[in-house]
Amino acid sequence: MHTLSQLKSGELAGITRLKISENLTCFPVEILSLADSLEILDLSDNQLTALPNELVKLKKLKIIFASNNLFTALPEVLGGCENLEMVGFKSNQIKHVPADALPAKLRWLILTDNCIETLPDSLGERPRLQKLALAGNKLTALPLTLAQSVNLELVRISANNLTECPTQLLSLPKLAWFAFSGNPFSHAELNIVSVPSLKASSFALHNVLGQGASGVISRATWHEAQTEYPHEVAVKVFKGSVTSDGYPKDELQACLKTGSHKNIVRSLAQVNENGYLALIMVLIPEHFKNLGLPPTFDTCTRDTFPSGFTLKVNDIDKIITQMEAVFEHLHSNQVCHGDLYAHNTLFDDNANIIFGDFGAATMYHMLDNAQQALVKNIERRALNYFIKDLLTICHQQDQHSPMFRAIEQKISRNNAS
Q1: How far, in Å, CA of 348 to CA of 23, rounded?
Q2: Which pLDDT band, with edges at 50, 70 and 90, does 39 fall under?
Q3: Which among 210, 322, 230 has a CA at the least distance from the CA of 283?
Q4: Do 182 and 246 meet the contact criterion of CB atoms below 8 Å apart?
């Protein structure tokens, strides 16, 4: 985090990344003095409503964040920034997205949690577009031009007002991660009773184990001795508002519809009280660790791994076999996970995996048979990327083994199916 005083004093000359959050109501013109170096500009958590036309002077600018401000329109000047690739204006008050506000090199657009009803056709005319986050708006339709978005890999359109399935997305050649719950077209009344309902007062939360866009997971113990459940459990308390992936209630329903599988985090019970939504799960043993790390700005949609981390080809094959079983289980229950990644996978020293994080999951039983097949095919592509990513961390001495080649052939078969 930087300060306005640092910027004005010239102390930040030559920096490539700038982040200022000081309740700014107008754009600090001193930022323009960084035109020869600035690549990432983060003005999130301010009170900005506009950006100056002079922003185009930042010739090296690749990424701009302005989340949690007061913009009512996506600034048109962004479209004139010649090297801008990533635009993030989450949680503003944006109603209007001008056709010329989308930069020519746009690769990643985040407009989650705004008030957008329509998007311009120019969105589908940005050939480098890979990642599109639009959850939590008021969209009633998507541009038909998105059918041209041949490089689009990840889409979040949950929690909108879409009345029809956007079929222009379903046949995109690279789309692999897709979340669309919480729309009129994806709504279907279900009374899922796969786990019992309990009261929030029946347990006590302790230390936080992890947290994401949709909620916080904590270790918990029961106030009274239980015979049905372990003494220690994990409880995910959902956030009440829309997240980058959609509505928490949809995540809970999709998780329950998925049912039980040995390689999926096991659900034990739920809490569904006014203002309090939670999922009670088996506590994962401490010896399990994350298989991967989330994508970076550079990789955009693809997972990363710690430097020097490798796996034996036998372990990779075992992990893949388990994930294939998870995939089939999900889709036999007509649930698309939407976030099939190594970073959502835990593994142990024996290559046993536990898969979780249903924040982007979508039930799709309400779609017609052809649409259901396309949704499954989209997630099969994510499974393929998962396999490819694991092969990149295979021990070097195993990369010419018959098993390595067999896994490569598996990718080819999946591509052909």
Answers
A1: 45
A2: very high
A3: 230
A4: yes
